[in-house]
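Per reviewer request, we include the raw input and output of the structure prediction for the construct analysed in the revised manuscript.
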Amino acid sequence: VQLQASGGGLVQAGGSLRLSCAASGSTSTVRTTGWYRQAPGKQRELVAEISSGGNIKYVDFVKGRFTISRDNAKSTVNLLMNSLKPEDTAVYSCKADTFRVTDGGEYEVAAYWGQGTQVTVSS
């Protein structure tokens, strides 16, 4: 699975950005796609994730502001970020967790990361 993230940029506080994570390859094996972020000097943290079945999880600091969605036809997961704050400034990356059963009947799990996209929110 290959992931291509896009949509970052510079925005003023209160503004909006839409990130996209386009998957290619063995997309049928993707079970969960998540958006993560890493601010300078901080650890990478989960922002939101969505399962292939449509289950969604948000971390508390983005609830009510960010919306994650998936376009199955385009194998894309989008993150709409509204009411952005300076503390949302970070490199945002997407990750896909996959699951498949091999020809030998073994369960195989893997995680794939896309490249990061910079989001900068000015005050």
